[in-house]
Amino acid sequence: MLRGHSFITYTVWAILIVASVAAFVLGDLMIGAVGLATLALSFAPAFMAERWHLKIPVYFYSGIVLFLFGTVFLGEAFNFYERFWWWDLFLHGTSAMGFGIVGVVLTLLMFEGDQYAAPPYAVAGISFSFAVTIGAVWEIFEFGMDQLFGMNMQKSGLVDTMTDLMVDCFGAGLAAMSGYAFLKFRSRYGLSAIISEFILRNRRFFRRAAREIETDGKAETHLDRLETHSRTMGVGRSDD
Question: How far is Cα 163 from Cα 154, in angstroms, rounded to an integer?
Answer without folding.
Answer: 11
